[in-house]
């Protein structure tokens, strides 16, 4: 009897433990499913945190910039900032980061225009009162509208240097992949949006969750423009390994890794590096 009693007690404990483990497993699966559902539903809010309706800055554009309108192929009219180049000088076609705007671009790129260079600073749909909602296809349309605007003003691709920061590097690489541009510079680029997301959410199946991909890694080798990449060694948002991988795909890349610079403080040290590179084109 004692042996049978002990066996019965053991079986009861095992059944109770199994039920507890099963409940814990179900709870973990539910929590994981909810987390994945939240990531899926909110991914564009996380990718485009700077989108908003505040249109007031357009009333006071930066010095020597005009507010212009870009007509996209899907029927939107977007405001952007344009500064015409002086005779014989190139024009920068620049795309800002996900929390920035054309105005922040104008501030940190100002030193690059002291020699008479022009600039078209595209402001994405959904940002600073522009109509529409941002997504990958939409930002590509915005970028193409910017390139089209410069073409309409008689500025040839061979006189245009395409550039981007962070999110804008994915847009810039898309534009430059059509060929014929004078140069391409990428500041704090990522190889793809999936790779960037995987760094922050290593437990999530981002390869099939992500709707917006920006696959710079798939097109960088085919881009015919001279390439400059600048990245902060202390970048925790987009690790410098992304730039190293991109540079390996283009042996002619001029890669500059900046000591003691992260993601949001890379602009100041990047500017003189870009200026130096522009003088070589």
UniProtKB/TrEMBL annotation:
- InterPro entries xref list: AB_hydrolase_fold, Peptidase_S9_cat
Give one GO molecular function term: serine-type peptidase activity
| Record field: transmembrane | 20-39
Stretches assigned to the Peptidase S9 prolyl oligopeptidase catalytic domain: 140-248
Question: Zinc: is it a keyword of this entry?
Answer: no
Q: Which Gene3D superfamilies match?
A: alpha/beta hydrolase (3.40.50.1820)
Q: What are the GO BP annotations of this UniProt entry?
A: proteolysis
Q: Which UniProt keywords apply?
A: Membrane, Transmembrane, Transmembrane helix
**PANTHER family in UniProt:** ALPHA/BETA HYDROLASE DOMAIN-CONTAINING PROTEIN (PTHR12277), PROTEIN ABHD13 (PTHR12277:SF81)
Q: Identify this protein by name.
A: Peptidase S9 prolyl oligopeptidase catalytic domain-containing protein
Q: Which organism is it from?
A: Sphingomicrobium lutaoense
The upper taxonomy is:
Bacteria, Pseudomonadati, Pseudomonadota, Alphaproteobacteria, Sphingomonadales
């Amino acid at each position: 009897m004692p042996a049978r009693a002990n066996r019965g007690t053991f079986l009861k404990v095992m059944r109770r433990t199994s039920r507890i483990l099963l409940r814990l497993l179900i709870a973990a699966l539910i929590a994981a499913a909810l987390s994945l559902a939240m990531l899926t539903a909110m991914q564009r809010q996380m990718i485009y945190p700077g989108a908003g309706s505040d249109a007031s800055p357009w009333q006071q554009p930066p010095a020597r910039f005009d507010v212009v309108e870009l007509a996209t192929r899907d029927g939107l009219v977007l405001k952007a900032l344009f500064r015409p180049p002086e005779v014989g000088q190139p024009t920068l076609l620049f795309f800002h980061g996900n929390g920035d705007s054309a105005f922040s671009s104008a501030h940190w790129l100002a030193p690059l225009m002291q020699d008479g260079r022009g600039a078209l600073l595209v402001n994405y749909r959904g940002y600073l009162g522009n109509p529409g909602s941002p997504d990958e296809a939409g930002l590509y349309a915005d970028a193409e509208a910017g390139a089209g605007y410069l073409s309409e003003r008689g500025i040839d691709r061979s006189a245009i240097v395409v550039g981007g920061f962070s999110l804008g590097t994915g847009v810039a690489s898309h534009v430059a992949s059509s060929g014929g541009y004078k140069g391409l510079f990428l500041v704090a680029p990522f190889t793809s949006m999936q790779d960037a997301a995987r760094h922050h959410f290593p437990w999530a199946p981002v390869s099939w969750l992500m709707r917006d991909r920006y696959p710079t890694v798939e097109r960088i080798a085919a881009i015919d423009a001279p390439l400059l990449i600048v990245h902060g060694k202390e970048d925790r948002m987009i690790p410098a390994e992304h730039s190293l991988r991109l540079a390996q795909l283009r042996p002619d890349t001029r890669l500059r890794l900046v000591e003691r610079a992260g993601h949001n403080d890379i602009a100041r040290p990047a500017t003189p590096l870009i200026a130096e590179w522009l003088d070589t084109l």
